[in-house]
Amino acid sequence: MKPFVAAVTLAAILSAGATAWAEDAENCKDHPLFSRMPNYEIHECATTQFDAVGFPRPELKEWNTPEEYTTVEGKIHAISYRPKEGATPTSALQIVRNFQNAVKKDNGTVLGDYGPDLYPHLPDTAVKYIGGTFDRYTTMTLNKGGSEFWIYLGASDGDEYKLLMVEKQEMKQEISVNDLAQQLDKDGFLTYHINFDTGKAIIKPDSEGSISQIATLMHSVPTLKVSIEGHTDNVGTPESNMKLSEERAKAVMAAVVAKGIAADRMTAVGRGQDAPVADNRKEEGRALNRRVEVVKK
């Protein structure tokens, strides 16, 4: 993992809205919460109506165990900025300080400030939106317009910076157990991005909802039998990934059994790295490939 260094520029001043530049990626614009650094353009953006992202606790010094993160659920906004061609390089420190000052000026809170002395391991829930390699980054919270925002800002020297904002809110329930059963009948499988400790088969607390959903589905359809199939990205050897995927499938199966589902209705299978659904050359793709599928027998 790339060590922290200083980098990039960004004068993030809170604003009621910002105008997209002609060079911005199609259908992308600044979020109303922040303006952008001078001479930067939007490289890419993404919005997800509901997801969960783990944020390190303010006192965190080691980034390994689930209890060191706070899981925040809500609407996701992710924006990547790059300097315009020929623009003077800005440091990551300057970008981070601009955002921090803007948030504090608006009575927000800086939770974490990470530089060369501490390079934390980003949780997969954040990596899939903003990647995982920065020279410097910060985490912040801010109440604005009646909403509570949790924010990641990652910056790289002389290069891009990325914003990940979680607008905290309850999920609007749109799928019933019957809908899941119908989807399973139609597609033959359901996909879950269950989070595990890195390189291990220990399920993180923020995946409890997925485990409960699988168990509820199994309870509601007593005749249903499934295969719990683990998949990995291509980091590591094929042999180690096959073993890890099987261990993770077994962990999910055990968690569902613990909720009252008979073990003989399920089997656990490891698929390793052999069936990717996204590009393993990018961290965003690797995060999508790390998944568990519930396959109807």
Protein described:
By secondary structure, this protein is an alpha+beta fold. It has two domains: 129 residues, Protein Transport Mog1p, Chain A; 120 residues, 2-Layer Sandwich (60s Ribosomal Protein L30, Chain: A), CATH 3.30.1330. Helix content is 24%, strand content 29%. It has a six-stranded antiparallel sheet with strand order 1-2-6-5-4-3, with helices on both faces. The longest helix is centred in the last third of the chain and has 20 residues. It starts with 39 loop residues before the first strand and ends with a strand. The N terminus is likely disordered.
Overall body shape: elongated
Number of helices: 6
Q: Unreliable runs, pLDDT <50, ≥5 residues?
A: 1-22
Percent in helix: 10-25%
Query: How many structurally independent domains?
Result: 2
The biggest sheet, with number of strands, parallel, antiparallel or mixed sense and barrel status, is: 6 strands, antiparallel
Number of strands: 10
What is the structure about, briefly put?
With 297 residues, the protein is an alpha+beta fold. It is 24% helix and 29% strand.
Keywords:
297 residues; alpha+beta; Protein Transport Mog1p, Chain A; 60s Ribosomal Protein L30, Chain: A; six-stranded antiparallel beta sheet; four-stranded mixed beta sheet; 10 strands; disordered N terminus
Q: Could you give the topology of this structure?
A:
Layout: E1 40-56, E2 69-83, H1 92-105, E3 109-114, H2 124-130, E4 136-144, E5 147-155, E6 161-168, H3 177-187, E7 189-192, H4 208-220, E8 226-231, H5 238-257, E9 266-270, H6 283-289, E10 291-296
Helix pairs in contact: 2-6, 3-4, 4-5
